[in-house]
Amino acid sequence: MPDSVARFVGDLARQRPPGYLFNQYAIEVPGLDRPGGAATRRDNLRTYLEPRIGVQLALIGEAPSAHGARFSGIAFTAERCLPPAQRTSADGLKRDGFAEHSATVLRGAMEAAGMDPASVVLWNAVPFHPARADDPLRNRRPTAEELALGRRWLDRFLVLMQPEVVVGLGQSSRRVLPAGTLVLRHPANGGKPRLQAGLMEIATEIGQDR
């Protein structure tokens, strides 16, 4: 049976990842998530992916961050960027929803490079949030086991979405993408200048600069 975005998202929600990987498409934590938050995140992801099948460019990051896709459901997207009805953090947890630094940097770099967001699809080497054991709203690097799980989801994602060009962002993406795939600087920890320069080169090569 041919794959579809709806089937992909549904299967994500059925995955039970190992260790402290948090499946934001399946689980809600009292005090952190609104009731129905996991379903909203699934809806957010479906709405984001469906019009992007066959886009020019896929950018692959590391993993959902505690203040980004953990609550928005969309890679490199803070819930603050979404309409209130699409935000999923518990009422009173963060006024106007969480902001996320890497998301802000990446989207600013894409804009500076003249990239049309509708022609880019964002994803991660690991699709679930690597939470810390001592704090569910802090990030950590994915383990080798978690990256192996993420590689299987990434392979399926790329077959489904059929982007013309795939580019990694950061070292975790390098570990799951095929050898020879271009990998740019991740937006975190002062990576904006090198990331922006790399995106500008890509935009020129694929004819997105304007």
Radius of gyration in whole Å, from Cα?
16 Å
Task: Give the low-confidence spans.
Answer: none
Question: Structural class, from helix and strand content?
Answer: alpha/beta
- With strands numbered from the N-terminus, the spatial order across the biggest sheet is 3-2-6-7
CATH architecture type? 3-Layer(aba) Sandwich
Quote the average pLDDT: 94
Q: Roughly how many Å apart are the termini?
A: 40 Å
Taken in chain order, the helices and strands follow as HEHEHHEEEHEHEH
Task: Count every beta strand, where a strand is a DSSP E run of 2 or more residues.
Answer: 7
Percentage of residues assigned to helices: 25-40%
Largest sheet: 4 strands, parallel
Number of helices: 7
The CATH homologous superfamily is called Uracil-DNA glycosylase-like domain
What's the quaternary structure here?
single chain
- Please report which band the strand proportion falls in: under 5%, 5-15%, 15-25%, 25-35%, 35-45% or over 45%: 5-15%
CATH class call:
Alpha Beta
How many domains comprise the coordinates?
Answer: 1
Tell me the overall shape: globular
The CATH topology comes to: Uracil-DNA Glycosylase, subunit E
